[in-house]
Amino acid sequence: MKGWRRIGDGVGVDWAGGAWTFAATGGRAGLVRDGAAGPFLCLTGLAVVGRRDDAAFTADSLVGLDVVHGRLLATFEPSGWHGLTVRAGWTLCRDGRGMELEIQASADSVGELRRLEIMAETRPRGLTAKDGAEPQWTVEPRDRWAAGSTYDGREPDALLKRLTTLPVGAHGSPPEHPDFGSLCCDPDVGFRGSFFEIARPDDVARTITTKQHAAEPIRYAFFGFDLEKGVVLRGRLRVVSLDESADWRDERDRFLAEPPPLRTD
């Protein structure tokens, strides 16, 4: 299984029937390919108590881009975020059928990054609502503290008017969202057939979704914990392309049973 490689001044990987590269543009950092919407499997923003930034992951905040043993590593230091460093790693998995995004966060400040969330999505956004109506959003919280984060000033008032928070413990109950996962068939992404996306429930404080379109992305709010100097937070988001005989339940069970990777890079 071949991994990421240097291509001129950039990086690339062959996956899911196409050639993908990395881009950090418009506040989003992730994978892109010709002829498909993007970016895909990407970082999309930061949030703490009283603050949200959907333009944090840009070329200006990108301080390192490396390929280590076939794994792509991108390091960001967003300006004004109290010494926050976010390292993202994209790695082929499941014999080349899957791609995993590992997110790592650290900081050199104390008492500044309260209930830090790093936002990530697997699919491009920008779909229009049905009949021109504003989309209605649903939050699935991990626990009572995550549920409270929705109302601590990080979400704009315009969104709160269109947002419903489900009861604590309700995540994973609908069949289309098993354990913070989703089964989707979206030709705009560039896959042949369907794919399954999943994150560990303990890694994700909240998911934010709308039901108005089957291809609308899930926003995963990773962590939701205070981040202090000397602490490192890690989480994973995986996407696997499924063939007709594959069962998403098998992929879910395999992912949840895997121990987290022990990395120093």
Compact description:
By secondary structure, this protein is mostly beta strands. The chain has helices at 144-149, 157-160, 248-257, and strands at 5-7, 10-15, 18-25, 28-32, 40-48, 51-53, 62-68, 71-76, 85-93, 98-106, 113-121, 137-141, 163-165, 181-184, 194-199, 204-210, 219-227, 233-242.
Task: Describe the protein.
- It contains 3 helices and 18 strands.
- The longest helix has 10 residues.
- The chain is mainly beta.
- The strands form 2 sheets. Strands 1, 2, 3, 4, 5, 6, 11, 12, 13, 16 and 17 form an 11-stranded mixed β-sheet that branches. It has a 7-stranded antiparallel β-sheet with strand order 7-8-9-10-18-15-14, with helices on one face.
